[in-house]
Amino acid sequence: MAKLYFNYSTMNAGKSTLLLQASHNYKERGMQTYLLTAQMDTRAGQGKIASRIGIGEEADTFTTQDDLFEKIQNRLAQGPVACAFIDEAQFLTKEQVWALARVVDDLGLPVMCYGLRVDFLGELFPGSAALLALADEMREVRTICHCGKKATMVVRFDSTGKAVTAGDQVQIGGNETYLSLCRKHYRAAVADDRSPELPI
């Protein structure tokens, strides 16, 4: 039975590695997959899902304007697909998550989403919030803080190495911009008496 899956974590937990491995497992058995990633994320190049360990694969892209039900239906019209994989799922809109639920329910196609749960201020991304509400199964992909505890938060740094405590929710970046931390060390990183709204 087809399901909507949400695999979530902080930065640098290996989400893309797991996605690529799962897709490879299907292909190894002679089944085709359909890979999608956010068009705005060009760190590995336009339309490419890549892992920090050096593996990657070409993918179709989506923007917040795309009808993902129609996009996936059009792909199915070109030939059989065993599973759809969505990378950077935090960038989905609520409506797009509902469209993915329709893909599962009405087209019978499993959809596996991989993305961040929270942003650098500890707030849920809209796509992640919708997936937490609608997914049939959720799996946490774990990574660790420098202290050895499970990392559940992510801090954003500016060019001087100072933690950023305001700004746009979306800023594409990697290790030079973000660091995954446990809640205690996240609080220490963003503590600022001039910003009482922060979780200090």
Q: How would you describe the overall organization of this protein?
A:
The protein has 200 residues and is α/β, with parallel strands linked by helices. The chain has a domain at 4-142: P-loop containing nucleotide triphosphate hydrolases (Rossmann fold, 3-Layer(aba) Sandwich), CATH 3.40.50.300. Helices cover 28% and strands 22% of the residues. The strands form 3 sheets. It has a 6-stranded parallel sheet, with helices on both faces. A hairpin with a 5-residue loop joins strand 3 and strand 4. Helix 2 (68-77) runs parallel beside helix 3 (94-107). The N and C termini lie far apart (45 Å). Residues 193-200 have low confidence and may be disordered.
Keywords:
200 residues; alpha/beta; Rossmann fold; 6-stranded parallel sheet; two-stranded antiparallel ribbon; 5 helices; 10 strands; 22% strand
CATH architect. name of the domain at 4-142: 3-Layer(aba) Sandwich
Distance between the termini: 45 Å
Please count the beta strands (DSSP E, at least 2 residues each): 10
CATH-assigned homologous superfamily of the domain at 4-142: P-loop containing nucleotide triphosphate hydrolases
Question: What is the structural class?
Answer: alpha/beta
Instruction: Tell me roughly what share of residues is in helical segments.
Output: 25-40%
Q: Numbering strands along the chain, what is their spatial order in the largest sheet?
A: 5-2-6-7-1-8
Give the percentage of residues in beta strands: 15-25%
Supply Rg.
17 Å
Mean pLDDT: 84
Please write the CATH class name of the domain at 4-142: Alpha Beta
Shape: globular
Q: What are the segments in which pLDDT stays under 50 over at least 5 consecutive residues?
A: 193-200
How many strands, what sense, and barrel or not for the largest sheet? 6 strands, parallel
Order of helices and strands: EHEEEEHEHEHEEEH
What is the CATH topology descriptor of the domain at 4-142? Rossmann fold
Separate helix tally: 5
Family: Belongs to the thymidine kinase family.
Subunit structure: Homotetramer.
InterPro entries: P-loop_NTPase, Thymidine_kinase, Thymidine_kinase_CS
EC number: 2.7.1.21
